[in-house]
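[SOLVED] Need 3D model of a two-part complex

Original post:
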Amino acid sequence: MSPALPYLTLSSEEICALHETGAQTVALQAPEGLKRHLFRVTKQLRAEGFSVCISGDPCYGACDLCMETKAMADVLLHFGHAPVDDTPGVIYHFAPASPDPAGVKNALPLLEDTTVGLVTTVQHVHLLEEVKGVLAENGINAVVCDGSERTPLHGQVLGCSFEAARKTGAREILFFGTGVFHPIGVALTTGARVIACDPYTGRCEVADGDALLRRRFVQIEKARAAESVGILLSLKSGQKREELAYELAALSENAVVITMQEITPDALLNLGFDAYVNTACPRLAYDDQVRFPVPVLSPQEFEIVCGKRTWDDYAIDEIL
Amino acid sequence: MSPALPYLTLSSEEICALHETGAQTVALQAPEGLKRHLFRVTKQLRAEGFSVCISGDPCYGACDLCMETKAMADVLLHFGHAPVDDTPGVIYHFAPASPDPAGVKNALPLLEDTTVGLVTTVQHVHLLEEVKGVLAENGINAVVCDGSERTPLHGQVLGCSFEAARKTGAREILFFGTGVFHPIGVALTTGARVIACDPYTGRCEVADGDALLRRRFVQIEKARAAESVGILLSLKSGQKREELAYELAALSENAVVITMQEITPDALLNLGFDAYVNTACPRLAYDDQVRFPVPVLSPQEFEIVCGKRTWDDYAIDEIL
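Solution:
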């Protein structure tokens, strides 16, 4: 599909592809910011003879497929993300965003190398060739790589998978996208100097992984005193690391596995544990600690608490 | 089990019953207010040789069994509720509360009849015989009845099932328990005069169903202008009324079925529909309207909007 099409309207090619599956009932799923387009899509699909149902629960990624709703339909049409796995019966509609690729010029003054790795998130992947061109015009050679199976698009990173950055082998990496976590994740997993370039605001900065590490070390120290530790096991389709959760629970007699669909501050407060270990979306521990009532550690951080890993081997959690 | 046992500690009879099932792994589930006891129960079960995992998601009743977590264990130990269905592999621990049954004396000045129906919620059901005795000493004949299959305890009502009240056939019904919804529900489903007696505060009052009805009528009128209507279909074990949801969706071309695990104000806001119809826990529409951004109607209320039901046939939604 083309990024020039109206936002969250299905193209005739997509409608044809749906008809070709033989589907009669289509389930729709989208992240929060796109949900309000789903009734328009519903009407478009009904006009084409399909029955429709919508998944209304929060959706944070393609790791969060509404499997129960999918089971009520012939096919799941999932908006806004690229696949993280090969779950059958799912069709993805990427909903690309289109900021100006020339915005990458703002990053030029911060670059120290003439060769940089280049990565972004799903909604900007289609712009990477143009971004690369702008950089080339300015004497910068940008290296774009394929990532893991979880990040199928060329140059794509996820909050749980930075393989496309790692594979560039570059000493300097440019992240073209929004937010602070992805560039910090790239920095901590690759050891490279990372420049984050926000294509909407034009703001560029060197990602500071140290500040995150200092905050994490405080949480690790706090968690050492915990007499009860909940090992959080997500029930989401692409976040359910059951084996890891039970391995971690076996590290301490104070630990027990706790399954959760949505990991929320209220839920953790009500459970009343002294600390938690997050085996779901890695970003939960890193981004949302300030919202949680007690330390929420990554698997690697809990291994440090249990003496199974040293500080020097600190690593960012990834789902590869 | 006896109400005299410490709160949320398993009795030796319960441990024996668990051993007799042959279970090795036990999943634990409890409503929010009881969740913080689950780690103590975990340690008790581990000392008996069981493996344990905990369901951390919100739990509002026995209609809300954690089926996916249950599938990871041999048996589900569900705290705080009586069964609403015959799902196999679930053991219920009632967690009774024990206010003073003599508190019912506070209701005596409000009673107009010498025969009253008597109902309560699950945590006080074990007190009904004593309450009945106190009433008898004061010249009042209390009638206690069995309800529906969904309310297996003698004299028990749920927010979605008032059959035990209806069956008393009484013109006056005494609700011994907390909160305002259950007595109002009893009043609106039976047409009886209902006295609510809170055994903790001693406060007694005549349940006022009219105020609820007036508020609901406002929402019905607001919903008439809706150009998009989401028919909410719960994914919870005992709240999933799929046939009803699709029947309601068929009443209007502006309606579509939306599946949800948790129906929250944020989720409804993000979906952006003009109105919703709730086929999940009936109390969501009646109790929580003030939290929702747009009208959330009951199935019967939506039928009024669609002209399939008249105002005179207004009825409280029940899951019988």
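Edit: Residues 241 and 279 of chain A are 6 Å apart (CA to CA).
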